[in-house]
Write a structure and sequence with these properties.
It is a single chain. The chain is mostly helical. It has 2 domains: about 170 residues, Helix Hairpins (Orthogonal Bundle); about 110 residues, no CATH class. About 75% of the residues lie in helices and about 0% in strands. It has 7 helices and no strands. Keywords: Autophagy.
Length: about 325
């Protein structure tokens, strides 16, 4: 939804750019508004490419959803088969028969073999002992017959186990196949996510069109601010040059007074450099922001004049410093 909303705002943003006129100093033939500055055809091709890419990604997304649904259905089938396999293993006839015979042996025959304590009056009767021996022999015979029957069912149990193992291995192969399909879908989903993130970044570039009018107004204000700073910078340089020139003039006047009053009475080579004057000051102010347009506005004419005067003053300071630097020497003043 946000993707569609951003694409819908492109035309509105282009129309808004067309309603913002450029400053007269920035206008050229064929470029009168902000809309003329941006490459409209390139932006339209870019948005068309985004729409085509979005359609392709939507098709891939739908295909992944279908594959995911198929894998889910296959998983449900495998789960049902595994449950059926476990239930068949528990309900197999040989297994049930062995369980019944085992329960009969444990519940009926084995307890019958337990030694019974005779009553006191019959403890020494031979008939009772003979009767117990016959009963025990019958129980042992039945237990032996039951064990042979259980042993005879081992073949059926082995066949049942083989069928169970074959079915279990088949289920394992099916699970492995499903796992490979799931990994394939996960890889495709990861690649699709990366491509969607890249497309989101491309769509974010369209936000520049929406923010361009306000940014343009801020740029005009920034140009005014920088030109004001440039004018103030050169004014401070000129002020520094004037201050230094005044200091040099005062210092040289004091040195001349010293020479006229005291220095003229001393040998020239007594104190080397005593007769030297302070050279004229040289203040170099580097020029900058020359390419910024003159946007005019309130006080722009005075500002431009001050900038021009400051630049001329800085140039004259540099020229004067370079021309007079060679004139300064350490020779003593002539009387």
């Amino acid at each position: 939804e946000r993707f569609d909303l951003n694409l819908q705002k492109v035309e509105a943003s282009m129309a808004a750019l067309g309603s913002v006129p450029l400053h007269p100093s920035m206008r050229t033939p064929g470029r009168g508004t902000l809309a003329d500055v941006v490459p409209r055809d390139k932006i339209l091709r870019f948005t068309a490419g985004l729409q085509a890419e979005r359609s392709r990604l939507a098709q891939r997304m739908e295909k992944l959803r279908q594959e995911d649904a198929q894998i889910q259905a296959l998983c449900d089938q495998i789960i049902a088969k595994v449950q059926l396999l476990l239930e068949d293993g528990d309900r197999a006839e040989p297994v049930l028969a062995v369980r019944r015979e085992h329960a009969r042996a444990v519940g009926e025959l084995l307890p019958a073999l337990e030694v019974r304590v005779p009553e006191e009056q019959r403890a020494g009767e031979p008939a009772w002992v003979l009767e117990e021996e016959k009963r025990t022999a019958g129980v042992l015979e039945g237990l032996d017959r039951l064990c042979r029957e259980i042993r005879g069912k081992f073949g059926d149990l082995q066949d049942c186990w083989d069928r169970q193992r074959t079915g279990f291995l088949q289920r394992l192969r099916e699970v492995s196949y499903v796992q490979s399909k799931v990994r394939g879908v996960e890889r495709q989903a990861a690649l699709l996510e990366e491509e969607i993130n890249v497309q989101h970044k491309h769509v974010e570039q369209l936000h520049h069109l929406q923010k361009m009018p306000r940014a343009y107004q801020k740029a005009l204000g920034e140009v005014h601010r920088r030109r004001q700073f440039r004018a103030g910078y050169f004014a401070k340089g000129e002020e520094a040059r004037v201050t230094l020139a005044r200091m040099v003039e005062d210092e040289n006047a004091r040195r001349r007074g010293f020479f006229l009053r005291y220095g003229c009475h001393l040998p020239v080579d007594l104190v080397r450099g005593l007769g030297a004057l302070v050279p004229p000051p040289s203040v170099e102010v580097p020029d900058f922001d020359e390419q910024l347009p003159d946007l005019g506005g309130p006080g722009s004419s005075g500002q431009a004049d001050s900038v021009g005067d400051a630049g001329a003053a800085a140039s004259s300071v540099r020229n004067r410093g370079s021309s007079t630097s060679s004139g300064s020497s350490s020779q003593p003043l002539a009387a």
